Amino acid sequence: MRQCRINPSILSADFTNLERELHRIHTADAVHVDVMDNHFVPNLTIGLPVVQSLAKVSNLPLDVHLMISDVDRWGPGYAQAGAASVTFHAEASAAPVKLARDLRAAGAKASMALRPATALEPYLDMLPELDMLLLMTVEPGFGGQAFLDLVLPKIRRARAAIEGTGLPIALQVDGGITAETIIRAAEAGADVFVAGSSVFGTADPAAAVETLRHVAQA
Ligand code: DX5
Ligand code: ZN
Fold first, then answer.
1. How many domains does the chain fold into?
2. Where exactly are the transmembrane stretches of this chain (predicted)?
3. Which residue range(s) make up the domain with 90?
């Protein structure tokens, strides 16, 4: 079984005390930060100033997920802010190859996300430009939604394509990940798992992270 990483989403954390919330997930591999602009998705969260502040206090790498329009313009600023990885949506980028290169040039890992109904195949040739591919397993915008099993075949095809490149490209899933659904996502080939409500919705988020990792690697 491949090495699995668990990145809790602070979308389900207490926004009035994010620094304390980071300590509650000290067992995580990275912290997933959901940036929403109420345009690409029908919800509004945080932006660059908060990510800059998080980067200063976080011991965990920042896995920034941009659910914003005009991402070609705004994306590199998150890399400059200190994000370890920056994920943009293919649907929101006019020039995804250029953006991926801009993110790497700014010092971050480049990652691209696809909504559940966005086809993988048009993007296969640009896999070598990416350090990570994110396949959304819910429609982006809100935490607490149910995992979409219809994405599983796309996860399998993405895993096969990644193996075909011979490159260490991570395959992330985000949305509806629980100790039950993570088994199917891992079996299909995902190796980085974002979990919001199933981590922060428990009394012991650090233990929930360890449980998810254990189940995914079983
Ligand atoms: C949804 C976000 C997710 C969200 C996942 O658009 O991108 O990262 O926080 O939340 P859960 O794990 O509750 O589905
Ligand atoms: Zn996310």
1. 1
2. none
3. 5-217
